[in-house]
Design a protein that fits this description.
The chain is of the alpha/beta class. 37% of the residues lie in helices and 16% in strands. The strands form 3 sheets. Strands 6-9-10-11-12-13-14 form a 7-stranded parallel beta sheet, sandwiched between helices. Bound molecules: iron/sulfur cluster (SF4).
Length: 370
């Protein structure tokens, strides 16, 4: 069978890793992955539902492709598959066959293609077709997925709907994959999860315990921590200090999202930005070469200009960060937060950020609207 893989959000490391894995999966099961102008037998899309706007964009592309390829077979996989309503309403359009397969149901793929090698056992460690947006994270990295889902409940996030509660891989499974990568010559691995801080909390273990095991089993391997919820990181900070001091953690992302306690409360992100700043200073003292990255959401409903400026001030303690303009997601609790900030406020704030970045006064990548 000929399969085309459509990555509708190639900035997302998770989506891209899953599609990179799918590429290997189809190939090891004897199918060919093709690109245009080759016409495939199966269209396999990985899409995003992080905001209403992003979701609509992904749905449009899929519906258009269904219109261009009457009678063809389509699979929608991943986060977008958790919001199937609009796509399902178009199922059968133009005689097409549409299957919606969320992450947790990947075994349905095995039935579909009569897989000898189940999706669950196929791994990928490199991102195929990724669009990097941060300095030290991209296609050159070697990724190992440690968990999916998350224990937190940020008001603007629909990861829970897309992936559910945290599901961690076992210490042994991760250890075996990393030992194999070490034997193949890798010396730096990126530990990937929706929140590395949630790792193991569904299995009676923790991230520090995982790192202890890994650092003992592969003494000259270093680990990038893709992202950690600051509230959980503050709880683990002391346990993680030795790993920083030994230079085993060259990269960490601590997504602050906002520096304003009132906004953090509306986001349902319980931590003190002041404590976060102290811990960042502590890491710098222990490990001056560690790259500390962050994410900020600006123009969150009711955010004032002063609160926006607070976030910019906090952003300066990090080596680099991404500023993302708030985009509504009607499937989240944040959709109920009012008053909304206007499009004009978004434009003013984006302009201000753009100027600071251009003048070298802020080290950041700007995504005006998600
Ligand atoms: S920590 Fe991240 S993945 Fe988890 S709910 Fe918050 S934003 Fe979503």
């Amino acid at each position: 069978m000929k399969v085309s893989i459509g990555n509708l959000h190639n900035m997302c490391e998770h989506n891209t890793l899953f599609l990179s894995r799918a590429r290997i999966y189809f190939q090891v099961n004897g199918h060919a992955v093709v690109d245009e102008p080759d016409v495939p037998d199966l269209f396999f899309f990985g899409g995003c539902a992080v905001t209403d706007r992003m979701r609509a964009r992904c749905e449009e592309i899929i519906l258009e492709s269904m219109g261009d390829h009457p009678g063809a077979s389509f699979v929608v996989f991943g986060c977008l598959a958790a919001f199937p309503e609009r796509l399902l309403a178009s199922a059968g359009l133009h005689g097409t066959t549409l299957r919606i397969i969320p992450f947790a149901e990947s075994s349905r793929l095995d039935d579909l293609i009569h897989a000898r090698h189940p999706f669950a056992v196929v791994t990928a460690n490199r991102l195929h077709g990724h669009f990097p947006y941060q300095p030290l994270m991209g296609p050159a990295d070697c990724y190992v997925m440690i968990a999916q889902g998350c224990i937190n409940a940020c008001s603007y996030c629909n990861i829970k709907k897309a992936k559910g509660q945290v599901q961690s891989r076992s210490l042994e499974e991760i250890g075996a994959e990393i030992s194999a990568l070490h034997r193949s010559g890798e010396r730096i691995v990126t530990l990937l999860a929706d929140d590395c801080g949630s790792y193991g909390l569904d299995r009676g273990t923790t991230l520090p315990e995982l790192l202890t095991r890994l650092c003992q089993s592969v003494p000259d391997m270093r680990f990038k921590l893709f992202t950690i919820f600051p509230g959980l990181f503050l709880g683990y900070a002391e346990q993680l200090e030795p790993f920083f001091a030994q230079g085993r953690l060259p990269y960490i992302c601590l997504p602050a999202q906002s520096a304003a306690p009132r906004v953090l409360e509306l986001m349902n992100r319980a931590y003190d930005p002041g404590e976060l700043a102290k811990v960042v200073a502590r890491i710098r003292a222990l490990a001056p070469d560690t790259f500390i990255y962050s994410h900020f959401i600006y123009n969150f409903p009711s955010e004032t200009w002063e609160e926006f400026e607070q976030s910019i001030a906090l952003a300066r303690i990090f080596d680099h960060c991404v500023f993302i303009g708030y985009g509504e997601n009607s499937a989240t609790r944040a959709a109920g937060v009012v008053p909304k900030c206007s499009a004009r406020e978004l434009a003013l704030k984006s302009g201000h950020l753009g100027k600071l970045i251009k003048q070298g006064e802020l080290s950041a990548f700007l995504v005006p609207i998600a």
